[in-house]
């Protein structure tokens, strides 16, 4: 649904995607910054672009979620832990 790519010298050094059904479900996935480019604010730039997309595309009653290893970044943009209202789960075959 939405992809953000940050390039430096012809290489992708930061990226993020939003996937979903285009109606009520949106999930932020794959936000990543290359190790050599971390701590420079690029994750924040990716999130700013993704949030701008969501503010324009997602209806007020949309379910916007993310499974994250870096909750502090998402918290800066208004994300909160889902517990106790819901519980995240993963399948590991």
Task: Describe the fold and architecture.
This protein is of the alpha+beta class. It has a single domain (2-75), classed as 3-Layer(aba) Sandwich (Aminopeptidase). Helices cover 23% and strands 32% of the residues. It has 2 helices and 4 strands, in the order βββαβα. It has helices spanning 42-57, 71-75, and strands at residues 2-8, 11-20, 25-33, 63-66. Strands 1-2-3-4 form a 4-stranded mixed beta sheet, covered by helices on one side. The radius of gyration is 14 Å and the shape is globular. The two termini are 27 Å apart. This is N-acetyltransferase domain-containing protein. Residues 1-93 form the N-acetyltransferase domain. InterPro entries: Acyl_CoA_acyltransferase, GNAT_dom.
Keywords, separated by commas or semicolons:
Aminopeptidase; 93 residues
Residues in β-strands, percent: 25-35%
**Structural class, judged by helices and strands?**
alpha+beta
Q: What is the average per-residue confidence, as pLDDT, rounded to a whole number?
A: 93
Distance between the termini: 27 Å
CATH superfamily: Gcn5-related N-acetyltransferase (GNAT)
Q: What is the top-level CATH class?
A: Alpha Beta
Major sheet: arrangement of strands: 1-2-3-4
Rounded to the nearest angstrom, the radius of gyration is: 14 Å
């Amino acid at each position: 649904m939405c992809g953000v790519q940050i390039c430096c010298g012809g290489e992708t050094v930061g990226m993020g995607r939003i996937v979903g059904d285009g109606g009520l479900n949106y999930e932020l996935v794959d936000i990543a910054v290359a190790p050599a480019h971390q701590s420079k604010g690029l994750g924040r730039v990716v999130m700013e672009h993704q949030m701008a997309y969501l503010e324009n595309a997602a209806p007020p009653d949309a379910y916007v979620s993310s499974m994250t290893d870096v909750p502090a970044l998402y918290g800066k943009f208004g994300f909160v832990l889902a517990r106790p209202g819901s519980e995240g789960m993963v399948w590991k075959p």
